[in-house]
Amino acid sequence: MSGDRPPSLDALRRVLLSLEQDPLERDRPPLFFETGCLPAERFPVLHEQQIEENLRWAREREQRVRQHARRVERRLHQSSRRDHRRRHTHGRRQAVWCVELGRGFGSLTDAAEFVGRAPSNVSQAIRLRVKCGPYHWEHFDPAKHPSRC
Question: How does pLDDT run across 39-50, given as a tens digit for each residue?
């Protein structure tokens, strides 16, 4: 068979007959390279099954994406309900407490200068409950901490 001419009907019949004689090959459709052309109407169900599988996968993916968005939104909502969200300072100084030293500072800026970091680093350490420099930090609470800054 040449590449530019469609295969003859006899060649197609021979391929299909050889497929039907082999019990392992009987249930599968002929491959495109075996027939030399695209199947016309012999196996249209395969195409419809592929479309249905793709649509089912797309629906499942949409559902997974929506579930993930809900989980992320829930997590963000949970993390935004911490105590630091209730402390509105509106530009005023925030007194902070160094846990390891047992020392208070009159503002985030004073504490940041003490450890050689930016005030935002101290604020982030308080919010995330991690260290800034070698120390842990808290908002100053007169009921909890013994001395004022």
Answer: 555 555 567 778
